[in-house]
Amino acid sequence: MTRIVAIEISHHRLPLDPPFKASWDGRPRRHFDATIVRVHDSEGRTGIGSGDLMVGFEGNEELFIGQDPRHLERHYEVLSHIQFHGGRCWPLDLALWDLAGKITGEPVWRMLGGRADRVRLYASSGVLRDPGAMAGQAEHFLAAGFRAMKVRFTSSAGGRGGWREDLAALEAIRARVGDRMELMVDCNQGWRMPWDTSAPWTMKDALEVARALEPLDIHWMEEPLHRGDRRGMAALRAATPLRIAGGEMTRELHEFRDLIEGRCLDVLQPDVALVGGITGLRRVALMAREAGLTFTPHSWTNGIGVLANAHLAAGIGDVPFLEWPFDPPEWSPERRDYPLASPLRAEDGWLTLPHTPGLGLTLDEDRLAALAL
């Protein structure tokens, strides 16, 4: 019987010149780190995952060595315990799914239900630009085939001069592209960078912004309140016709159960690389569907995380859009996907998934070796 014989974790750093100044950070990012997880089995196959840093995993390898890699539910339970005591080690779950697919000869999207082999994308911007530049970027996305775009609002980290200036950028986009694109807004209030101690919006703050967004026909309003303000989310959702989205950094699956039961959100956005892995988020996707809510993963990681989220979205189905981190020149597929032999490519606003076993990815081993920490 196939057994796990080794787990290998490596860390890599890509220098960014020019730097990337993310709207949710405010400080120029001069490098982009990636953690790669490899799970080797007794037949010489290797499963690959990536995402969070795997903090807290060291010393727990023995809980997986000698086990059948296809026992995904068992491994999920162990990883959930590790998360309680340490960090988010969900990239291992991605690697196990990749390996399970290679063992069975099936792509992960088919193993998850096989509803589709492609997903529709929305272009997810990350840089704060002036209104004219934002409108120009929207035109660029539209010409590339994207029919939806997410616009970042200023977090307290700085950038534009507050949400009213953010609104001006959004108005410029709508004036330029009309109704040819769906527009989403990320309010950046759900969480903060470690150094940022400013308070998030109150429910009344968020409602004021929602009222300003309503005439612009916004598809969803993302993270308008602190991630723990469930009562505020539910009240905001009841007070505005806008869809309220969130959950990208929610860590525990039971918190999604509470968000669903409390009717706090219209759109749930967890990321397989950051919470629950594919095994856990399959549960969330099905809970959301049964409650009549939308599931569409956050995927602002490297190309391995984007691809893993795409497999889940396609396999489960009923995902209207998947996040496509894309804001050139600062955030290009070449930067985002540097661990891969070839960057992922969108075609007319869609990502078509491979039919090869597992996740269907190939690492650029030479580059990873050169960028190893």
Automatic annotation (TrEMBL):
Molecular function GO terms recorded: hydro-lyase activity; magnesium ion binding
Occurrences of domain Mandelate racemase/muconate lactonizing enzyme C-terminal (ranges): 131-243
SMART domains, alphabetized: MR_MLE (SM00922)
Transmembrane segments: none
Swiss-Prot/TrEMBL cofactor(s): Mg(2+)
Keyword annotations of the record: Magnesium, Metal-binding, Plasmid
One Pfam family it belongs to: MR_MLE_C
Keyword Magnesium: yes
A biological process term (GO) from this entry: carbohydrate catabolic process
Protein's UniProt name: Mandelate racemase/muconate lactonizing enzyme family protein
Taxonomic lineage from the root: Bacteria, Pseudomonadati, Pseudomonadota, Alphaproteobacteria, Rhodobacterales
